[in-house]
Amino acid sequence: METAPSLFRLIRLYRLVLPLAIALVVVLFELSLQPFQGQPAAFWLRLGFYGLVGPLVTWMTLEWIAQQVQERERAQRALEVANQRLEAIERVLKQASAAENLEQALAAVVQEAAQALGMEVALSLEGVQATSVGFRETGPVYALPLPGMAGKLEVALPRPLSDEEKNFLEVLVAEVAGALDSVRARSRDLLTLYEVDQALRAEANLGRLLERLLERILDWAGAEGGGVLLLDEEHFLQPQVLHNLALPPHAFAPEGRWKEALEAPTFVQDNLLAIPLRQQGPIGLLLVQGEAENLRQRMAFLRFLAAQVTLAVRNAQAYLRAEELALTEERNRIAREIHDGIAQALAFMALKLDLAERLLPTDPSRALEELSQVKETLRAQIREVRRSIFALRPIDLERYGFLESVRRYASAFAEQAGFRVRLGLPERLELSQASELVFFRVLQEALTNAAKHGRPSLVQVTLTPLGERGGVLEVRDNGKGFTAEGAAGGLGGFGLTQMRERVEARGGRFEVVSLPGQGTCVRAELPF
């Protein structure tokens, strides 16, 4: 940057000094020729001096100026190249930071590096497919490892590298390593969020859900141990999940730092960070044990993950309450069925038996008719009781798997209810455990309604995959069908409502199509 001003000052100096120096030399030369005045030698000496020395001084002066200008241009070109390479590094960092994943970041880095160097470049990173621009290993290759990463940057050399190019490559690989590490960390964060989201969708059991969430959080944080504590009704901290933590397995009162941690993240021990789980008020703590400075740097994302754990706990608790409510409603429904069905049938049979007893002495044939009606009613009620008992019998989804459980249950239920069943099941269906349970409950209720209200001869059960993850369940019968007014009036109304609520609570869609005399189709669609 100072080459031009220095050159300008030197030229101005020489412009002042050089004429004076020349004049002084001329004066001294003329004085030295005074003794030779009038002699032929004086003429030749003047001719040689003015004919040779003057041009020589002029040439030397111009040569010096040319060298200075050349140095200036060389420095300016070097500066321009350095600026271009700095801009290339800036573009590399910008594009790598904007990349969605490591593959895109590698491609952006290689493209910019090849353009900046004008050479073929390849970049490889362990676990990621190598990326290159026109790279051919047909000649010498200059390789530089990525600092702190299992990877390297390679340049195919059409010519030997200059020191400036080597320095540029060293700076480049250092910046690239930092940018790729940032992209990898961001990808790891996004992957952790995805896995946490999948865990939330896939598991309704609170204990197993917390186990899966904690495993992913500890793996992301590089932690040595951790746990989840929840406040019970007496406001005691009750351990739910503990991994490599020296904490009592029983509930304890939050005091001191434990109490502070319920309000804000606090190190309850030197290397044990407690992050509050809060929703309107504290509901528990997420514990992460590891190197304290590392945990402080990851604090913001850990707090976000704690919010996800809070959501998981609330959802699981709401699911449990919904299950308890469903059990209560189911008990009430069974009580109503017993009162409206079996109890009334027993009362009817008791009246018929009394009538038959009175008619037996006077009208034996009429008495036998009444006894025959009692027998038919009794057989029907026995079938209804067996069907109800079978519908209430639990099924082990984990033991048989979802599809096999559907096959077994539908076939056995059809045999108990006295109709044929036609199954259309895929070989494989990607569903979470919670969605499998919802589908199974819908199947149970739909078959129960068909047997109780539709009296079909055939029921078709179809399961269809929905994209890569998710599915559609259809239960179609050829029974009596019903109108909307019939459903609202009690013809399966509670069962339909319960099915709809279960499906929509999982983010799915539910519909029932039915017409009198044309059967009923129950359709449930669920994501993963």
Question: How would you sum up this structure in a few lines?
Answer:
With 528 residues, this protein is α+β, with helices and mostly antiparallel strands. It has helices at residues 3-33, 40-98, 102-117, 163-202, 206-221, 257-261, 292-297, 299-359, 364-392, 397-400, 402-417, 433-454, 484-488, 493-505; strands at residues 120-125, 128-133, 141-145, 151-156, 225-231, 237-243, 266-269, 272-279, 281-289, 420-424, 458-465, 471-477, 509-514, 520-526.
Please give a handful of descriptors for the protein shown.
alpha+beta, Beta-Lactamase, single chain, 4 domains, 14 helices, five-stranded antiparallel sheet
Detail the topology: elements first, then pairings.
Blueprint lengths: L2 H31 L6 H59 L3 H16 L2 E6 L2 E6 L7 E5 L5 E6 L6 H40 L3 H16 L3 E7 L5 E7 L13 H5 L4 E4 L2 E8 L1 E9 L2 H6 L1 H61 L4 H29 L4 H4 L1 H16 L2 E5 L8 H22 L3 E8 L5 E7 L6 H5 L4 H13 L3 E6 L5 E7 L2
Parallel strand pairs: 10-11
Antiparallel strand pairs: 1-2, 1-4, 3-4, 5-6, 5-9, 7-8, 8-9, 11-12, 12-14, 13-14
Commentary on this structure:
- Helices cover 61% and strands 17% of the residues.
- It contains 14 helices and 14 strands.
- Strand 10, helix 12 and strand 11 (458-465) form a beta-alpha-beta unit.
- The relative contact order is 0.04.
- The model is unreliable at 488-493 (pLDDT under 50).
Low-confidence parts: 488-493
The helix/strand class is alpha+beta
Helix content: 55-70%
Q: Largest sheet, described in full?
A: 5 strands, antiparallel
Q: What is the number of helices?
A: 14
Strand order of the biggest β-sheet: 6-5-9-8-7
Quick one: how many beta strands? 14
Distance between the termini: 64 Å
The CATH superfamily of the largest domain is identified as Histidine kinase-like ATPase, C-terminal domain
Can you tell me the number of structural domains? 4
